[in-house]
Amino acid sequence: MRIAMISYYLPSGSKIGVGYQVHELANEFVRRGHHVDVFSECGPMEGALYALRRLHLSGPLRTFRFATNLRRVDFGSYDVLHAHGDDYWLWRRRVPRHVRTLHGSCFEEALRIKGVKEKARMILLGFSEVLASLVADVTVAVSPATLRWTPWVTHVIPNGVDTSRFHPSVGRRNEHPTVLFVGTWGGRKRGSDLARLFSEQVRPAVPDAELLMVTQDAPSDLGDGVTVLGRLSDEELADAYARAWVFCLPSTYEGFGIPYAEAMASGVPVLATPNIGARYVTDEGRYGVLADLEQLGSELCALLPDPARLDDLGKASLERSREFSLSSVADRYEELYRAERGQR
């Protein structure tokens, strides 16, 4: 098949998880023999097997202008248009099959984000998601709770993780208790809050514990036991998961939360705050630990010195991760791609 993918974001220009998923999914379809072109505002990605069709933009309101510019693109040579955002103006049928993935809900994020300007932006994007779900032949959500704002959508396909890269590695776990965080220092990922709780509660109780933070916006000196790793390559990130004892991401909101699934595929216990994505990925805490922000410190203090519980949670993580393998996710999308024309 000839597949056109739309995503404003790619890892070359943004840390947003949607871009990483588009990159991985597009590569997987190329490996399966499909031709994939990705239409994006971001630059080329190292390791991309797909072709990049870049729409160059500058100035303000680029995400909205990106959607407008897509109307000028001729998608007539493609069998499938798979949009991961910004297709809300493409209401006229342009391909035999138009699939839209909702990677979360901007309405949901608007309830939690700070700042009037950002709330207004999220609400506008939320209406664009609703419109896009009506424009596409079939719309997919990455978690069941995302359907709250688009109840007419019935398909749920989670994000996928490349299990050839993220997998348990016997003998690579650090000798000392290690907590891993992947996200931003500020904003909804709340890396600063995790660092504070670690310094105030975990380090005094478990003196040899270490918090490794894969983030680019943290201060350089965060005190004993906290190390900022910055941005890592794919191989370095996989190695960081393999060495961790616990993965912790205290987000206020995740539509899915790819780092949770990456940790699980690596056999690492997941500790998270009960946001929408974490509740789905851990199946309401059956395959991980959910706790409110201020309880994370005490949970880590209880987990790190308990090898039996860590082992049980690691096995549970690995079991759950099979639901999120990139291969199974691509299988399910291929079924949608091949469905009869016009089937909704």
From TrEMBL:
CDD domains in the record: GT4_PimA-like (cd03801)
Domain of life: Bacteria
Record InterPro entries: Glyco_trans_4-like_N (IPR028098)
Residue span, Glycosyltransferase subfamily 4-like N-terminal domain: 17-165
Keywords: Glycosyltransferase, Transferase
Chain ranges passing through the membrane: none
GO MF annotation terms: glycosyltransferase activity
UniProt keyword Cell inner membrane present: no
Repressor found in the keyword field: no
Pfam families per the UniProt record, alphabetical: Glyco_trans_1_4 (PF13692), Glyco_transf_4 (PF13439)
The protein, known as: Glycosyltransferase subfamily 4-like N-terminal domain-containing protein
Organism placement in taxonomy: Bacteria, Bacillati, Actinomycetota, Actinomycetes, Propionibacteriales
